[in-house]
Amino acid sequence: MTVGDGPVQVSVTISGLSRLFGADLARVVDAARVADAAGIHQIVLPDHLAIGTRTDRYPFAPTFPYPPEEPWLEPIATLSAVAAVTSRVRLGTGVLVGPLRGALLLAKSIATLDVLSHGRVDLGIGSGWQREEFTEPGAPFVGRTARMDDQVRACRALWEQEPPVSFTSDTVSFADLWCEPRPVQARVPVWFGGDASLRTARRIATLGDGWLPVGVTPDEVLVEGIGNLSAACGEVGRDPACIGVRAGLPVALDADGRVDLDATRARADELGELGVTTVSVALGRFLAGPADVAPFLTDLGAAFGD
């Protein structure tokens, strides 16, 4: 089964900031400007409000890739700065820990970013894995996934229904609200992080627009997850071609340790044949330092010919 149409697109996740930018984290905006000019399809910012000492509890393979002292820019604020210096690249989160934010705050923040970027937002959302981040008594670690689902439903209501908007669920309810401005996009794409299970697929088919596979290897498991998406879409009467899949792309290196873009592109095409619609390159995993960022983004855009 094929999810989505057209050639595989390339997304860049800007993580590993200390390696990429040293002490000057504002250079992330310069990198975004280069990516925009290079034809990169999407820029993605990950999310952690804080990191505790127990990164060994990271539940996905491989181990958590960064030490606790690694800096993490708040993604919505950072993407607002990126929106000001770009015109075409899409602005994604990957993934935003939704339950750490209230539904109204998330609805307002994403709508504002969508307005300022003229409709370029992709909301990647997840329920989080790190208990230490959940410090607010009203937003505990237990029950976070149910709150995330209700949060997305509430945001959809505020974004898409004619005001005044009312919404009722087990974890968030309100009556007769205006939350203006609403997004430019008629439907803000919401991508859920998760495993390859049918439960994840049903959440996406019901509430979302895309899957962000987390800890999903090898290819057989990825294919299983895409098959579950197709089945879940059938259950609710949705066309599976409307659902995107953004999977991590390992960057191939040559014998001298340099990036082999031809081999990397070939692997992207293989993932596309499996049903992946967008491949994601995590810059902080392999670039050596600030001087490598702009040349790599330029070469990557040329290799994918967006």
Question: Any chance you could write out the topology, listing elements then pairs?
Answer:
Blueprint lengths: L8 E5 L3 H5 L5 H12 L3 E4 L29 H11 L4 E4 L2 E2 L5 H14 L4 E6 L17 H17 L4 E3 L6 E4 L12 E5 L3 H10 L2 E4 L5 H18 L7 E5 L12 H14 L3 E5 L10 H12 L2
Parallel strand pairs: 1-2, 1-11, 2-3, 3-5, 4-5, 5-8, 8-9, 9-10, 10-11
Antiparallel strand pairs: 6-7
Descriptive overview:
The chain is of the alpha/beta class and 306 residues long. The chain has a single domain (9-304), classed as Luciferase-like domain (TIM Barrel, Alpha-Beta Barrel). The chain is 37% helix and 15% strand. The chain contains 9 helices and 11 strands. The protein has helices spanning 17-21, 27-38, 75-85, 103-116, 144-160, 198-207, 219-236, 261-274, 293-304, and strands spanning 9-13, 42-45, 90-93, 96-97, 121-126, 165-167, 174-177, 190-194, 210-213, 244-248, 278-282. The strands form 2 sheets. It has an 8-stranded parallel barrel with strand order 1-2-3-5-8-9-10-11, surrounded by 8 helices. It has a two-stranded antiparallel sheet with strand order 6-7. Strand 4, helix 4 and strand 5 form a beta-alpha-beta unit. The chain is globular. It starts with 8 loop residues before the first strand and ends with a helix. 43% of the residues are buried. The model has no long low-confidence stretch (mean pLDDT 95).
Largest pleated sheet = 8 strands, parallel, barrel
**Strand order of the main beta sheet, please?**
1-2-3-5-8-9-10-11
Structural class, by secondary structure, is alpha/beta
CATH class: Alpha Beta
Strand content: 15-25%
**CATH topology annotation:** TIM Barrel
CATH architecture descriptor text: Alpha-Beta Barrel
Low-confidence parts: none
